Structures are given as structure tokens and as C-alpha cells.
Amino acid sequence: MKNQVMLGRISSVDYKNGCADVVFPDADDEIKTELPFFSAEYQMPEINEIVVVIFQRHKNRSQGFILGPVFNSGNLPESSGKNVYFKRFSKEAYMKYDGDSKILEICAPKIKLIQEE
Questions:
Q1: Residue 2 pLDDT exceeds 70
Q2: First CA to last CA distance, the chain
Q3: CA atoms lying within 13 Å on the CB side of residue 81
Q4: CB atoms inside a 10 Å sphere around CB 66
């Protein structure tokens, strides 16, 4: 593979090492293994979730990085708007900030706030 951007489906996830195997239907179902996530936060995708992968050519080999999932008809934004930040943590937990109203909403079965002295 040369320098390129591709869509693929997650086939397995290595939770401990923060990487995954990705199948590329547009490349004859080629599988690339142990691709790391290009991310500053830890949130692993579901099996079969569609992700964007970038590949960069280094001398005689190609290195891929998973950028993350894409919004599509099967994965629509749960909350949206110009000044809205939304982060889903699990089925029960999320965080939403509305920059227009200045309201931060945190939803979870239990919430623990820790104040460091």
C-alpha cells in the first residue's frame, strides 16, 4: 500500500495495546493486523465498526494508523450543533457540553467527583 486513506471494518481489537485488525472490502478483503490508533484518548471501537485508516509509506514498508469511526447511516451523531461537544462512554454514560447555553451535562448511573488538594 502506498500513501492513502481507506475505509475498513474492525475485525478484532487488542484492548491492552490499543490496536486492532482491519479488513478492507475495497482491497479484496485484505486484512492489516495490529494497526495502532492515532488518538489522544482511549476508546476502542466495536467489531465490524467502519473506521478511517491512513497509510504512510516509509522506505520499503507501509505503516497504517486508525483515525477512528465515521458517521454514516448506521452511525449517526446522537447530539449535534455548531457549539456542541458530545462524548458517549457506554450505553448508560455520556457527557454533553452546549457552548451556546454554557451547560455541561454528565449522565451515568453513578458519578464520582474527586477533588485533589
A1: no
A2: 52
A3: 11
A4: 22
Residue for grid cell 450505553: 91
Other Cβ atoms less than 10 A from the Cβ of 58: the count is 8
CATH class of the domain defined by 4-69: mainly beta
Query: Quick check: helix, strand or coil at residue 28?
Result: coil
Give the number of other Cβ atoms within 10 Å of residue 35's Cβ.
Answer: 21
Give the three cell numbers for residue 6: 481507506
CATH 2.40.50.230 residue window(s) in the chain? 4-69
Instruction: Measure Cα distances from 60 to 1, 38, 56, 63, 70 in Å.
Output: 10, 22, 11, 10, 30
CA atoms within 13 A on the CB side of 13: 17
Residue 72: CB atoms within 10 A of its CB come to: 9
List all residues 6 or more positions away from 114 whose beta carbon is below 8 Å from its beta carbon. Answer: none
Distances (CA, A) of 15 to 23, 43, 77: 18, 9, 24
SS3 78: coil
Q: Using one digit for the tens of pLDDT, what is the confidence trace for 19-31?
A: 999 999 888 888 8
